[in-house]
Amino acid sequence: VRTAEDIRTTAWRIPEVRDLEVVVLYSLALGLERGRAEDRIADQETASVAMGIAAALEGQVRATHLVPVWDDLPVVVGQFDPRRHVIFNLVESLGGRAFTEPEPPRIFESMGFIYTGTDYKSITRSANKLTTKKLLESAGLPTPRCQVFRQPEVRRVGIRLPALVKPIAEGGSFGVSQDSLATDERQLAERVRRCLEIYRQTALAEEYIIGREINVALWGNHNPTVLPISEIVFEWTDDPLRQFVTFESKWVCDSVEFTGTPGICPAPLTSAERTKIEEVAIEAYQALGFRGFARVDMRLRDGIPYVLEVNANPDLAPDAGFFRSASVAGFSYSAMVQHILQLALEAHYA
Ligand SMILES: Nc1ncnc2c1ncn2[C@@H]1O[C@H](COP(=O)(O)OP(=O)(O)O)[C@@H](O)[C@H]1O
Ligand SMILES: [Mg+2]
């Protein structure tokens, strides 16, 4: 059996996943400095995903360590040895603070660790929806027109209503509810004010795309592979102005919106639609400089997939979109988790 030290020094050969000691590192959800109390539901799920991943690796790798982190990441990680341990990164925030998701990969890198998922630069780019949209636009990719508001004084220029108002740098549909759509100026001002107040960050108002909701899971380092495409269908309402993914529909299991918005994979698409969606997803992934894995959220209207955002380290829960797609491609949960580790090794040794 090769030791981890051998693995490190024989850079000419990528180590095998089964030889790894994996630290499954995840963020605790002790509190948030912003947002609504309910938002913690989503953060608490990270712990159960971490347990599921550690269980899936049982017997497949040399050892696993399940390690929570709150605000002391360098200390926690400092107990491990970059020559022996590879990090499975499930750290979504530090100390419950906003905009901290890019920090962990930067710390791992500075300490010399191999870690799963994408690097800090691409997390930084994708964590801010406006930065993402600018990069998408420069790459010639379709994304809805938008306007940002940093103050409650709202003068609409350049976007048409209805518009969907969301915090500029959250994920998981935080701050997106059935009240997020603005169909007139008064509502727009009210949605913006609420976003600034509750989320303490810039409000992004985007032209609302009436269309289908498409999720594309991708993985790979330079030339990503697109997994089978998913669609979220809105069975609970026929009103196109209500057919979008709110916080309730994602996280509140006993709500009408949650039970009435199943994910379908593979999505019924024409081959022209599929080709276009795959092409845009790959270009979006590359425009943001991703490695590892990601999920691209889109709205499809008249054959054009408008990219809403690219999610770094998307939810790996067994009932979330990424595994839905991987399983349709024939991966068991354990095989998916091992492939993500394999990509981390390849990114490091390439
Ligand atoms: N411009 C838009 N047009 C239509 N629906 C939108 C738009 N922006 C957001 N949504 C809806 O809100 C959901 C959450 O928005 P998204 O940008 O993906 O943020 P999050 O990071 O919270 O997932 C989307 O999945 C979609 O259903
Ligand atoms: Mg999204």
Write a structural description.
This protein is an alpha+beta fold and 350 residues long. Helix content is 35%, strand content 20%. It has helices spanning 4-9, 39-57, 73-78, 103-111, 120-127, 129-138, 185-199, 247-251, 256-259, 271-287, 321-328, 333-349, and strands spanning 21-27, 63-69, 85-90, 114-115, 146-149, 163-167, 181-182, 203-207, 212-219, 225-226, 230-232, 263-264, 293-301, 304-312. The strands form 3 sheets. Strands 9, 10, 11, 12, 13 and 14 form a 6-stranded antiparallel sheet that branches. A 4-stranded parallel sheet has the order 2-1-3-4, with helices on both faces. The longest helix has 19 residues, at 39-57. The mean pLDDT is 94. Adenosine-5'-diphosphate (ADP) is lined by residues 144, 164, 166, 170-174, 176, 206-209, 213, 244-245, 297, 299, 308-309.
